[in-house]
Amino acid sequence: MKGWLFNDYIPNHDEEPFDELLRLFKEILTHTSGDVAEAISWLTELDKQYNITNSDYGVADFIKDLEECGYIRHSKQQKTQYQPTSKMEAALRRQALDDIFDQLKKSKHGQHNTKVIGQGDEFTSDIRPYEFGDKLDTIAVSESIKNAQINHGIESFKITEQDLQVQETFYKTQTSTVLMIDISHSMILYGEDRITPAKKVAMALAELITTRYPKDTLDVLVFGDDAWSIEIKDIPYLQVGPYHTNTVAGLELAMDILRKRKNPNKQIMMITDGKPTCIKKGKNYYKNPYGLDRKILSRTLAIAGNCKKLGIPVTTFMIAQDPYLVHFVDQFTKVNNGKAFYSSLDNLGEFIFMDYNKSKRTKKR
To answer: What is the DSSP pairing of strand 351-355 with strand 360-364?
Structure first.
């Protein structure tokens, strides 16, 4: 049975006591699925063992500051209990993004670069005549003045619409994304916590999409025996249930959601520990948690093929590296012509990236 092993805590003296404790508290809160009371209990125990706080600033002071800064509030149901606020939920997503994707650079408007010429904010080397509707900040001043001099001369210098030239930009498009999160029992099987890393990846992806690509749409769903939609703010509170893994149900719901989206670019991001173990046949469930069941595998690969036909790539974030689970994701990704990230539980910042469009495998840090 695996458990938690803690190393000696080395404080960062460059941080204020509140900021240092807040960073640790957010990490603990993710593990407790948003249970503030349990997170405070963990923090208190860690403080007793590793002397995190001092006589000038203790856990009680930290809790008071958390409430005053708007990170926690008293529960409406139980006034003696605390619950996270929307500010804390946003902070959890930002920390997850920093922890996992700390090398990503900020974009101006959060739109995706393409190879197509059109309206955007990244200039090319091409110049063309001005057309009605072009933005003023794309006007090529030097070329426009040159045209005006040639067309009208120096003595009667003037600039008309026909003189104007604009600098081409790369067209930027929008994407509709569905984020799927596995909450089956295998995510905590044998005492191995896979759901906490899964939540971190989910929060990081949600924060990345909503902040870097604000014009995109993002829907989130979870899947166990069945699949259902949730709000982004609910991701930190996700808990594993006594469920099998019905990947088919998750993909079917994701496709239903994307059919209603008008964006031409659609994608599915799936966070899972790999193996599907359940499908629905009529009103009944067919379940087999042992190995890769041929019936379940066939249905799952078939719907992966359907996603490909609809032009919906599936990117799989696999929170495990068991050989037979990797084998399934490998098959699934090939059928969908999608992408897969394999991550160990120890180092979420490092992914093994497989892109079957380019038929290569590279390591991302």
So the answer is: antiparallel
Residues 43-66: pLDDT tens digits? 999 999 999 999 899 999 999 999
* Secondary structure of residue 23 in the 3-state scheme: helix
d(C-alpha 66, C-alpha 88), whole Å: 9
C-alpha distances in angstroms, 190 versus 168, 187, 271? Answer: 57, 9, 19
DSSP secondary structure, 270-303, as one string = EEE-S---EEEETTEEEE--SS--HHHHHHHHHH
Cβ-proximal residues to 231 (8 Å cutoff; 6+ apart), any chain: 220
Distance CA 353, CA 124 (A): 30
Torsion angles phi and psi, residue 103, rounded to 5: -100, 0
pTM given for the model: 0.73
Provide the token pair at 273.
């520990």
Residue 289: name the closest of 275, 277, 274, 272 by CA. 277
